[in-house]
């Protein structure tokens, strides 16, 4: 798999003992990638889907434990209907061809976001993929679909308030962990917070993605548009991550 000279050089620098456990990616630049080629925007999303396959396999091979991908935000509904419809078809096409590979690589599919607003066929494809990979215990491929972090936090606050109102929870007992436990990432347990957040295509924004969970994540903004991202650019991002000194507010370089 790693054949070119450049690959070998990159591998030399990669410390396989310090692979970030949870990598989150804001997959941006599909539209610009297509426009640069005089193609319709959706051609960028189609190519972006192929990148999802490549990067999933690369991350799994490197020993990443959770890969969270921002596939459709609560704000993406504002796009033209044709583009939204195309994006809604992508999970169907993706899982129709890719679930056997996911199972072969022991990758488990999970989802964050309110999928009840997605078309029935999309919901079914997502639920089937979750079911078909339920016994896999390798990397978790965590799709954010109709996900927005403010929406997630609002729902968590509402749910905590309900528990207080029902007398099940004392306000003084609310901790940071209580909040984490009510977020859509709660099923990820100790792995819920990304170690590394990557955004492609040069934009330097978080765009409502995992706002609570990235409190101490390393952030990387890379110039490649998402369809040009691959296992090699992922490794480069991890090498950059490994050169950073995470202190979590303390003083010790670990
Ligand atoms: C952002 O690029 C990308 C999206 C809003 C969609 C991301 C979706 C995929 C990469 C495919 C997902 C695949 C599966 C399997 C669900 P943009 O359109 O905002 O690009 P631009 O900023 O250049 O216009």
Automatic annotation (TrEMBL):
The active site is at 28, 76 (proton acceptor). It comes from the Bacteria. Its cofactor is Mg(2+). Substrate binds at residues 29-33, 41, 45, 73-75, 77, 79, 199, 205-207. Keywords: Magnesium, Metal-binding, Transferase. The keyword Chloroplast does not apply. Binds 2 magnesium ions per subunit. GO terms for molecular function: transferase activity. Its EC number is 2.5.1.-. InterPro entries: UPP_synth-like (IPR001441), UPP_synth-like_CS (IPR018520). Mg(2+) binds at residues 28, 218. Belongs to the UPP synthase family. Catalyzes the condensation of isopentenyl diphosphate (IPP) with allylic pyrophosphates generating different type of terpenoids. Homodimer. This is Isoprenyl transferase. It comes from Limosilactobacillus pontis.
């Amino acid at each position: 798999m790693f054949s070119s000279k450049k690959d070998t050089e990159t591998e030399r620098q990669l410390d396989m003992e310090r692979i970030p456990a949870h990598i989150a990616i804001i997959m941006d630049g599909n539209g610009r990638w297509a426009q640069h080629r005089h193609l319709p925007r959706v051609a960028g999303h189609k190519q972006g889907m192929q990148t999802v396959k490549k990067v999933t396999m690369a991350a799994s091979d490197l020993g990443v434990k959770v890969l969270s991908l921002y596939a459709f935000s609560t704000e993406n509904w504002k796009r033209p209907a044709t583009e939204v419809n195309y994006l809604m078809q992508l999970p169907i096409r993706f899982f129709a061809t890719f679930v056997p590979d996911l199972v072969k690589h022991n990758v488990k599919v999970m989802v964050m976001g309110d999928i009840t607003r997605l078309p029935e066929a999309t919901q079914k494809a997502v639920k089937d993929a979750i079911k078909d990979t339920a016994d896999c215990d390798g990397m978790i491929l965590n799709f954010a679909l109709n996900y927005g972090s403010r929406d997630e936090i609002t729902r968590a606050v509402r749910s905590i308030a309900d528990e207080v109102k029902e007398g099940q929870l004392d306000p003084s007992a609310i901790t940071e962990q209580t909040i984490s436990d009510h977020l859509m990432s709660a099923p990820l347990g100790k792995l819920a917070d990304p170690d590394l957040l990557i955004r492609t295509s040069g934009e330097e924004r978080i765009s409502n993605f995992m706002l609570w969970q990235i409190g101490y994540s390393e952030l990387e903004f890379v110039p490649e548009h998402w369809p040009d991202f691959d296992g090699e650019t992922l490794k480069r991002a991890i090498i950059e991550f490994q050169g950073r000194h995470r202190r979590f507010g303390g003083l010790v370089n670990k």
